[in-house]
Design goal:
Layout: H1 3-9, H2 15-31, E1 43-52, E2 58-64, E3 69-71, E4 73-76, H3 83-95, E5 100-102, E6 109-115, E7 118-120, E8 123-125, E9 128-139, E10 152-159, H4 163-166, H5 170-184
Parallel strand pairs: 1-9
Antiparallel strand pairs: 1-2, 1-4, 2-3, 2-10, 5-9, 6-9, 7-8
């Protein structure tokens, strides 16, 4: 499913998500596929993989180098309109996990996330927005993990009850809580 189709079919969970969906659709309709590329300096599409273990009591997270916090894996669309494919690709690149099964083919959280200015590989990246789609995946927690040293310093299964104490980014914690509520409760 392409970006526009997947966002149009997304069923908002909250009033806030409904409004963000409207803003995202307006932005895409005005900017076209530009959102799929990082050349769109104001906002670009990203995908996140929130990977649960089979018991659904842990989530696979990375220790992000730039922002020095634990987070679910994810990354930029870089031209790919199928954001589930992006999430799966990022999971493999950042953790080595290739055997994850989508809980659903559908976006489980659609958010506009603020990214603070930072340096990446010596280049200044100004404040911008990520139009982010989060997907839930299931994987065996016994799978071998690996660190992608240029992006993260650790990879681990974090107990769901401990996510908030590991993740410093409150905006992301809010997204994770929404997904947990949809998957577990």
């Amino acid at each position: 499913m392409n970006l526009l189709q997947s966002i149009r079919t997304y069923q908002p969970y909250t009033m806030e998500e409904e409004r963000e969906k409207q803003v995202i659709l307006e932005f895409i309709e005005k900017s076209g596929n530009q959102i799929l590329f990082r050349t769109s300096h104001f906002a670009h599409a990203t995908a996140t993989a929130m990977v649960f273990n089979e018991k659904k009591d842990k989530v696979l997270m990375i220790k992000h180098n730039i922002f020095d916090t634990w987070a679910c894996v994810g990354g930029h669309a870089d031209g790919e309109g199928n954001l589930l494919s992006v999430a799966l690709k990022e999971l493999q690149e950042e953790t080595g996990v290739i055997a994850a099964v989508p809980y659903s083919q559908d976006i489980l959280s659609l958010d506009i996330l603020s990214v603070t200015a930072h340096y990446k590989r010596g280049e200044y990246v100004p404040n911008h927005l990520h139009i982010n789609a989060t997907f839930a995946l299931i994987a065996d927690e016994k799978l071998r993990l690996r660190i992608k040293e240029d992006e993260n310093s650790d990879v681990a299964w974090i107990a769901i009850k401990d996510i908030e104490s590991h993740c410093k980014e409150k905006e992301f914690v809010k997204v994770y809580k929404k997904i947990i509520e949809k998957i577990i409760y």
